[in-house]
Specification:
By secondary structure, the protein is an alpha+beta fold. Helix content is about 20%, strand content about 40%. The chain has two domains: about 100 residues, Lipocalin, CATH 2.40.128.10; about 90 residues, Lipocalin (Beta Barrel). It has an eight-stranded antiparallel beta barrel with strand order 1-2-3-4-5-6-7-8. It starts with a helix and ends with a strand.
């Protein structure tokens, strides 16, 4: 055999041998799911500021809120609830609110808009009052004829000091004439409360109770009698306080 033939035969043998080796040791198959690897997902919040979800924002509103006029000479209370109402969720409004803010007369619900604003709704789900959040726990708004008002959580509301309450007050039943006048003084009594003095001509309802002292207790005004009885009043506005619990014939304490 010629030398060239020997070289060609050797080459054919190598090629055939290599093919056999490949047949005996096939290349591992690649799992299609591993062919393309996506970049690892970055946990939310590590590189961006997270915002509360709509549900979280709504839950933050569920509480008792105070609705005063901007000058704080009128105030009523709302209770934001989670039950469904037309267009949003249920809102309980104090009975005295329509007398102070006529625009609240038909308010029965609430909802948050896409920008964090608060909408107070009527029974048809229509916005009666729209409020803008100015800080956590506080909104403000405006209504023609009523002016600017503020909505604030009860926890954020200012608490009246005893010094602010000192002076002459009248007790009335509802919107009727006063049935008694009294003076809240800042002189202490032996029990640690402050002195209360009734003036002549008080109705029997008051004289039977016969208060002789008073104090402020967690935002409530409390009248005390020598027999250990008490009447609690909560603020409707700076000059009007209503006895608790509320009744169909409310007892009011009015600044003179």
């Amino acid at each position: 055999m010629r030398p060239g033939g020997i070289v060609i035969a050797a080459t054919i043998a190598v090629v055939l041998g290599g093919g056999a080796a490949l047949a005996q040791n096939p290349q591992p198959k690649v799992d299609p799911s591993e062919e393309v690897r996506e970049p690892a997902e970055i946990p939310q919040g590590q590189n961006s500021q997270t915002r509360p979800s709509g549900e979280e924002a709504a839950n933050a509103v569920l509480a008792a809120w105070e609705f005063p006029h901007a000058d704080h000479n009128r105030m009523c209370r709302f209770n934001f609830r989670g039950e469904a109402a037309a267009g949003g969720r249920r809102l309980d409004v104090d009975k005295n609110c329509p007398n102070l803010f006529p625009s609240t007369k038909d308010v029965v619900g609430w909802a948050l808009d896409n920008y964090g604003g608060l909408r107070l709704l009527n029974g048809r789900g229509e916005a009666v009052i729209e409020l803008t959040e100015v800080e956590s726990g506080m909104y403000d708004g405006f209504a023609p004829g009523e002016g600017r008002y503020v909505l604030q959580t009860a926890a954020a509301a200012p608490v009246r000091s005893a010094d602010e309450m000192v002076g002459d007050w009248a007790i009335s039943r509802g919107t009727g004439k006063p049935i008694c006048t009294l003076t809240l003084a800042n002189s202490p009594t032996p029990s640690g409360a402050l002195t209360l003095r009734l003036k002549a001509g008080c109705d029997a309802l008051v004289t039977r109770f016969n208060p002789n002292a008073w104090r402020m207790d967690q935002g409530e005004l409390v009248l005390l009698s020598a027999r250990g009885q008490s009447w609690q009043f909560e603020e409707n506005d700076a000059n009007t306080w209503q006895r608790l619990p509320e009744s169909a014939d409310p007892i009011l304490l009015l600044r003179q």
